[in-house]
Amino acid sequence: MLSDDAQTLLGGILIGDASAYGSLRPLVGARLGADPVAYLMPSGGVEAPTGELPDEAVVCSCSNVTAGRIRQAVHDEGCTDAGAVKACTKAGATCGSCVLMVKKIVGQELTKLGQTVSNALCEHFDLSRRQLFDAVRVSELTTFSAIIERFGRGRGCDICKPALASILSALVGAHVLDGENASLQDTNDHVMANMQKDGTYSVVPRMPGGEVTPAGLVVIGQIAEDFALYTKITGGQRIDMFGARLEQLPLIWQRLVDAGFESGHAYGKSLRTVKSCVGSTWCRFGVLDSVGMAVRLELRYRGLRAPHKLKIGVSGCARECAEARSKDVGVIATETGWNMYVGGNGGFTPRHAELFASDLSDEALIQAIDRFFMYYIRTADRLQRTAPWCEELEGGLDALRAVIFDDALGICVDLDTAMTRHVDNYEDEWAATLRDPAKLARFRSFVNAADVPDPSLGYVATRGQLRPVTAEERESGAVMIAGTTLEVRR
Length: 490
Ligand code: SF4
Ligand code: FES
Known about the structure:
21 helices; 5-stranded mixed β-sheet; alpha+beta; single chain; binds iron/sulfur cluster; binds FE2/S2 (inorganic) cluster; 14 strands; Arc Repressor Mutant, subunit A; globular; 4-stranded antiparallel β-sheet
């Protein structure tokens, strides 16, 4: 939708190919400065605009930083990478969704200045993530201190530490809280739970393919009631329990593990969920067993750490009820096998996955996903999801098909071996933590009073459940302060 003079973008809905979303979104409310058609149909014979955002376009909506401000940081304040721009302008400092766009603008401006765009991971490593992955693989080093001593400098930062934790996880496969590894993890991996806005955590047990037994539901319900946790069904077909205090996490997980649940890795840059429809088991239209395949895929790739989170969807027919094409890997059943789609995601820049291969058998599908994931894990940039990774691949999806199906790079044996090692070495992180007193020692709100809850937590009841108190409610006194047992005010 455009203003009456067709100069200002007011809004819009993209249907089908939504790849223009990332570049159009920051333009909303801004004067386009070129023929609007060129933004929407660059391949329709109309010359595309330079691909650059106008100065007034907001790139970072969290901190309200415009493209012009980022350019100013490069030209006037000497910033030469996204990290420096973040320090200067706060772009990318909150949710991080805009970092790739910031990087792109910095790259464009440096090119104009005749400077080389640095691919360095951060100020401590001159290597890109991909180069660092190869360096660690070839050198067989297994600790951060040895790696930074050999390939970097200084003591590391919040960029290189989690990146190396992820690389080491893919190559070595040690527990996230083992030895030096523990100090590399970011906030959520550090306690294997997602920190929420009030400092408490959410707990997400794995439910492969979205399946859960009635007995499992009862266990989850009882735990949520006993610990006064807010429960919600997630978009990934599982149950999230919110409001767990740090010292409660092992107690909650002990009960979940005893009931047969395991970590859902909702906190990790790793496989999250495999969403599925009910498929041929129940649905009148289903042509293949989508739940069975989803469970098989989820159990195969659980715990697989990657540059960013990974999601899969499996639909039992072309009606696509599992929305598989919005996932990193989408699988859709046909009368003659599985169609595999790659490179879809939601988030800041939504994108539909593209058809990668057709009519695959179960085994051929799994082998193709093995190789796709492992090749991505080895070569993607830090925090790069599969969608932009696919877009930036030299030669596009055809080149990727050649790597995966024709072994064009001669690395398929390597990729297969790496995935087999991952599958063989998988162990539930929470079950392993519960067996280890040294790892359990970190789950305390106060080091000198292990059982004392954080007294600043406050809750009110909404729709029959507790939620964190707002600042206004706290001031008005309508607040319940957390104790070991919470009385629910309805
Ligand atoms: S995608 Fe097809 S098989 Fe699955 S629930 Fe929808 S109609 Fe049924
Ligand atoms: S959009 Fe930039 S940090 Fe969130």
